[in-house]
Amino acid sequence: MNRILVRPPRRKGVRGVLAAGLSALLIASGLGGATAAAADYSQSAASLNTSQAQFSFTPSTPARYVDIHYTGVPGVGQQNVRMTENGGTWRHTVGSLSAGTVLDYWFTYEKSGPQYDTPHFTYTHGGSGTTVASPTFDPPGGSYPSARSVTLSSATAGATIRYTVDGSTPTASSTVYTGPITVSATSTISAIALKSGSANSPVASASYTIGSTQATCPAQAEVPDFGPNVRIFDPGMSASSIQARLDADFNAQKDTLTAQFTERRYAHLFKPGVYNGIHDNIGYYTSVAGLGQNPGDVVINGDVTVDAFNESDKGVALQNFWRSAENLAVVPSSGSTRWAVAQAAPFRRMDIRGGLQLYPASYGFASGGYTADSKVSGQTASISQQQWYTRDSSYGSWDGGVWNMVFSGTSGAPANTFPNPPETTLGTTPVSRDVPYLYLDGSGKYRVFLPSLRTNASGPSWANGGTPGSSLPMSQFYVVKAGDTAASINTALSQGCNLFFTPGVYHLNQTLNVTKANTVVLGVGYPTLVPDNGVDAMKVADVDGVRIKGLLFDAGTTNSQSLLTVGQAGSTANHSANPTTLQDVFFRIGGQIAGKATNSLIVNSRDTIIDHIWAWRADHGNAGTYGWTINTGDTGVVVNGDNVLATGLFVEHYQKYQVIWNGQNGRTIFFQNEIPYDVPDQAGWKSPNGLNGYAAYKVGDNVTSHEAWGLGSYCFFNDNPSVNLYHAFEVPNRSGVRFHNMVTVSLNYKGTITHVINDAGAVTPPDTRPSNLVSYP
């Protein structure tokens, strides 16, 4: 096997000097992600004098630590401070305040091992003090087949909740909430929370549709208007007219310097047939897909290409993010298709009748990548790719391996030889279900195909003539286009509709609530959801069979607790026969805007399949959108549900643990990670156990069963190369917790990682060479 040794890689973009103010450090805290219960604590804020206020937090269970996070001090960014404990109450004093200064604050606290995060509170200096936290509803509003018992709560201890059920606005004289409300008919509950000495909460509402069956989506068009950003091509069109449209889109989206953070988005959809002489170069936020039921229904005699296209790329493909190819057969003009990509660039359901080159034509660096449910008749060559994951596919042969090449259920994959060469190969994928996808049926109507669940899968799902599964007509999908709001999208969901997101950027002033079992949320062309005013972008109820595919969650400028949450905290229902799947779902904090989110993804539901995500806290982007105190984010992925499987987990640059896995019987096949580049100093970057830094992948202390294969974590402490991470992987020492084929690397030898996992594995060597460990324990 030819192994190309790459030069020390320059990762994602040349970094400028960070803005002043990096002395505001993220103080250590522990396991995070779970939402706090109001009964766990009491908190208060009180003015001490004209320029100072004291914040107090009293946990009901003694805590090893409590951190306060706050924004709003004039001229200072977000502050994250370990509070001081005395007599069971933790306190911190904030200065530099003046009359009318408004602080947004919240707490992180430890309770019996795990870490919990409170909702946000508001304090106005010289005003009426804190604002009571708005009531929350469990279960959330939505469509239900029978009556529901709805519990209201406020995160403010001691608050009284008053509510209405007749559509009127609740006041201080409305009905007092004393216990669960039985909702037996369609209605809306509106509620406020009150507490003496604090400002009343904003009004919160939840609408419930109750019927003998789930709500039925009002009939939508079976040949819908997909809007101006979806290009639909027909084999009857001239090749020159198709090529002109493709070239115009590519020229708009190709440039790494000007298009990487644009709001333009496109989808190129090809109706069934043969297309000759077509060359589709794929730029940022562009999806290309066939509209056949199987890949061979659309044949392109030409090329679908990603390369280091721009002079500014200098021959490397380290920033070729956010683009995709799906459900096509390609007969490449030169014998091989080139797909030289980095993260968030899936290559799915592709039939390549020739070779596949995963590296730039220049042989420059690349940092991908993901292939699934595909067939390549010739050789697939990774060459300068740092890492790659292939699931349920077929290769003629494979060549290449730099640090971490992983295969599951893939014929033609190399033998399991990690670390020399660094190939990790599993014969099958334990559980998989391919993505939902749009296609045209024989009558010219659009439908969405829903592939069946597979166990111990190997090879493409369509290898024997067609993907097993079922389909839904577009008449059951609400097509989300420019002009849609969170309210219009939630209305469609409450009516029982599935969602089809077209390319665009959608700002949300309320959480999207997916409550109906088997709901499909499908996006093309990287539709981007931006939560405004600190709301969580999307919540999925603990129900069977929800499928979410092809979305980009981009954190808003006011901190969200989570961008996507699957299942309520404490969910225990068994979904093994029909799990929720998250596929090609991407998260971004910063880069486009100065986004903030405590967690990107929280998974509480059992049996969820996480199939290819990239959660990224930006290390570069538009000016003023990134930096240690600017685009803040604690953790990328928190898994609390049992029996969750991750296939293709990419998580980078978060400020605490990158991944926290608290659920039992979890499994991960392929993990790629970079530790944050911009840690200011070691003193402010220590985990709760006192060790240097936060592990990339933390398995909860109470977990007794967990297994993972093919994991890589890289450090590049560019702002302070003296920073050290004690270990990349932190797990309990139990026989049921097993890790296989791990690698750590210090990129350009900027800082070090002392151990690979716990106290095992050697320190990262110089010269961007890996430290490998085959198994643990």
Automatic annotation (TrEMBL):
InterPro entries: CBM56, GH29D-like_dom, Pectin_lyas_fold, Pectin_lyase_fold/virulence, SACTE_4363. The keyword Repeat does not apply. SUPFAM superfamilies: Pectin lyase-like (SSF51126). Residues 1-38 form the signal peptide. Keywords: Signal. Residues 36-125 form the CBM56 domain. This is CBM56 domain-containing protein.
